[in-house]
């Protein structure tokens, strides 16, 4: 998701590493903090793959800054990743939010709808964090108030997201 975030933020405008790190941290928050030891190797991988270009600009105070831009190949790669997300990008909430943050860069409403329908299908499957054998346990069946709380909040969140998905799919013509 780090690479998707890099490509997504650079789709809008050239940025330097520090600004990218701030934006990614704002998006992922405490869930997945981005360390320099993770960010800069990812930037180098994308640069080596021809997805990013680097230019040196004078710094505002002293040292020059390396500003990154997305290449045409980088733009194509971002759109490919958005149109063909892995299943984990659909089912993991934090990865889903990262994908969703950049889905507008996928210009085709039908392709956007296809991604949203995958998330909708996932949310409509009966699931739980807790099971009795192979059967998902519902919140009402739990004596543990904390586990019941987890399921109650998750169910409310899923209902709200499903409502949003239906409205958005309708607005996209899907």
Provide a quick synopsis of the model.
The chain has helices at residues 2-12, 17-28, 36-48, 72-83, 87-91, 93-102, 109-124, 145-171; strands spanning 15-16, 52-57, 65-70, 131-132, 135-136. It has a domain at 1-78: Arc Repressor Mutant, subunit A. It contains eight helices and five strands.
Features:
174 residues, Arc Repressor Mutant, subunit A, single chain, two-stranded antiparallel ribbon, mainly alpha, three-stranded antiparallel sheet, elongated, 61% helix
Overall form: elongated
In which order are the strands of the major sheet placed? Answer: 1-3-2
Number of separate strands: 5
**Helical percentage:** 55-70%
Q: What is the string of helix and strand elements?
A: HEHHEEHHHHEEH
Helix tally? 8
**CATH level 3 topology of the domain at 1-78:** Arc Repressor Mutant, subunit A
Superfamily (CATH H level) name of the domain at 1-78:
Winged helix-like DNA-binding domain superfamily/Winged helix DNA-binding domain
Overall pLDDT level = 90
Class computed from helices, strands and strand pairing? mainly alpha
Rounded Rg? 20 Å
- Which consecutive residue ranges, at least 5 long each, have pLDDT under 50? none
